[in-house]
Structures are given as C-alpha cells and as structure tokens.
Design brief:
The protein is α+β, with helices and mostly antiparallel strands and 307 residues long. The protein has 9 helices and 5 strands, in the order ααααααββαβαββα. It has a 5-stranded antiparallel sheet with strand order 1-2-3-5-4, with helices on both faces. A hairpin with a 2-residue loop joins β4 and β5. α2 runs antiparallel to α3 and α2 runs parallel beside α5. The longest helix is centred in the N-terminal third of the chain and has 35 residues. The radius of gyration is 40 Å and the shape is rod-shaped.
Length: 307
Amino acid sequence: TFIMLLSLTGCHDKALEETTAAVTAYNDAAESYNAGIVTYNEACSQIEQVVFSLDAVIDEAQTVINAGEEPYDPSTLDSLKVEISEAQNVKVTPPTIIEPLPLLTIDPEAKTAQLKELKASAETKLAEVNSMSIPATPSIPNYSNNEAAIKDALSVYQDSIQSLKQVTNPDQDFVIDRLQMIETITEIEAVTEETDVNGHLNKQGGYTSAIYFRDTLVDLDKVYIEPGFEGLLDIGTDAGGCIEVFANEKDVQNRDTYLAGFDGGILSSGGHYIVGTVLIRTSNALTGTQQLELTDAIKEALLKVIH
C-alpha cells in the first residue's frame, strides 16, 4: 500500500510538473499576444469613436430632412444631401476589436487525470496562439471636414426653411421691422380697412396687409401728386413702393398677374416681384435698375434669418 501511494504521488507530481510547464508556456505566449493587440485595439476603439461622431452628425441632419419642411431655396436641401452622401461614401466600417486570450490557472490539488487534461488543453491552445497573427494596426480616419461640411449645409438648409416661413403670410409688424433695415426707406405706413384705397385688405383673395414706404431714391418733384394728396398713403407706390402680403401662393400669383397686365403702359404701377406669398412693389418713378436694386434689398431683408 505504501509503495502504491508513493507511486501515485510520483505520478501526480510528474503530472503537476508537466502541466505547470505546459500552462506556463501557453500563458507566456498568451500574454505576449495580448500585449501585441493593445495598439490594434486602441486604434479600433478610436475608429469606432470617429465613426460614431460622424453618424451622430449625419443622423441629426437626416432627422431635419425627414421632417419634410420646405426651404425657400430647394438647392440647400440638395447640397445637404450631397454632403451626407459623400460622408457615407468615405465612412469606414470599424474593424472588430480582438478579444484578449484568457490565462490558465493550475489547481495543485487537482487529480492527476485533471492535470493531464489541462496539460493537453494548454498544449492545444499554445499551438493555436503560435498560429495566430495580429493584423496591421488600422489607420484612423479624419472626418472633421465631413462633419463641418454637413453642419454648414444643415445650417444653410434650416435658415432657408426659416426664410420661407418669414415670407409666408408674415404679419405687418415683421414687414415693417425688415423695411426699417433699408437705409433709403425713410417712411413706412400700413393700411387699415378704412385707409385702403384699393379695398382689398382682408377680403377673399386680397392681401392680409399692405405696407407703403417712402424711398429717397424717388424724386418726389418728378412724381405727379394730385392736389390735396400729402400723406404716404395718398401718394401710394409712387413714393417708393408697397409690400402686399397674401395668405397663399395662389392669391399672390393672381395679384401679380393682374399688375403685369399694366406693364409697359401708361397705367403701369411699377415693378412687382413675388417672394413667398409677399409681393414687393416698387415705384414706377424709379429706373429699371433702381427697381431691381430696391427689390433685391427688400427681398434680402425679408429673407434674412437673425439668430
């Protein structure tokens, strides 16, 4: 019995020694491999971060697009879509992070059979480690220019949406405020139902507000003013012009078509230009160039988005 115990003890000790050697060899190889993948995994993590950041910018822009709001300038939406598409085209798929290899431990009290099993497993794992290679460290893309381009295009698109809202049946206080931005406009007066000589205010198909203005580009000495007419509303568009606001595009188009019928004749009331549902009218006493320049100045003031 004693000899049998010595024999069993010797077998166990030998198994423990061989298993320890096999486990140590595997653990050394695993630790070396784990150390080798650190740089690779760090690069993978950074790539995930830059892709996540780009996706967040793209998602924000796409959310605004999906809301379906109409911009004043449709090209701003096209430009935004182009920037998103270009970003999607250059965006990489983040490589998968390599999981570190687990280390093995030995229980000295384990049975000989268990030790032999662990030894075999360690040798198999060592062979696997020795056959493994670490991929080249991937380069980290820089999407800062793409993000900036999308953000800029999104801002322009959102401003264009706001611009359209500003020229879609705006209230007269807004129009008056924007006319005051133009240096050559010195006097502004909105009509009421009692002072509206055309009788269109608030009527079906008529304007919701009409704001006349005096512009210093007009030489009133060259404008025919009926005797007794002194106020801005008496002189009408000849003093500078008028902003007529309509509830919808159909009504403003109808009004523009009506005025166009007098273009080039002795009854012409001056220039007329549609912006949204707003009709910008400019004095017939101005030259064609002056009408265009004044119209552009008013249009710019109405569309300007103030943050």
